[in-house]
Amino acid sequence: MQTSWQEVVQISQQYRNARVEYWLSETLFNFSWWILLVTTLGLFVIWVILLDKKRVFEILSYGFLVTTISSILDIIGIYLMLWRYNHTLTPFSIPIEIHIIQMPIIYMIIYQYFNPWKTFLLAIIINAFFFAFILEPLLVWLQVYELYNWKHSYSFIPYILLGVLIKWVIHKLKQNNYA
């Protein structure tokens, strides 16, 4: 039996409606939702205070690349059913608070304060360890994040590569006077 495009659209609409209904009844204003809201706003305020205004374009470029790549990888992971987000600030499947605000801010702070490669690598490795082995399990415990065909240890290397490769790209762009 072949599935028609109209059936795919109908299933997508049903999923969207179910997701919004679930979000309104189970997520909005629950404990996890408040944690996500407070940490998102708190990190944003801290970042605005700490941001080196002289390097804002460079730091934001780094952050936008973190946002873009991590969001694409997250969408792929969700599509492949490696993980799913049960609770988010919005009814969207991808948690914009994590991949568009929180994670890029943490990476931007590391990029800003740990400029030499040696200290940057150490900071990014510590960050990857924190994300993979402390933050991800905490998000599972808070029922924000649910693993299906993924383990926290799988995230460790990608968190390092994300920071390192983007720093390398930004530095190459700066060397060529593009940034």
From TrEMBL:
<keyword id="KW-1133">Transmembrane helix</keyword>
<feature type="transmembrane region" description="Helical">
    <location>
        <begin position="154"/>
        <end position="170"/>
    </location>
</feature>
<keyword id="KW-0472">Membrane</keyword>
<keyword id="KW-0812">Transmembrane</keyword>
<dbReference type="InterPro" id="IPR048147">
    <property type="entry name" value="CBO0543-like"/>
</dbReference>
<feature type="transmembrane region" description="Helical">
    <location>
        <begin position="62"/>
        <end position="82"/>
    </location>
</feature>
<feature type="transmembrane region" description="Helical">
    <location>
        <begin position="31"/>
        <end position="50"/>
    </location>
</feature>
<feature type="transmembrane region" description="Helical">
    <location>
        <begin position="121"/>
        <end position="142"/>
    </location>
</feature>
<protein>
    <submittedName>
        <fullName>CBO0543 family protein</fullName>
    </submittedName>
</protein>
<feature type="transmembrane region" description="Helical">
    <location>
        <begin position="94"/>
        <end position="114"/>
    </location>
</feature>
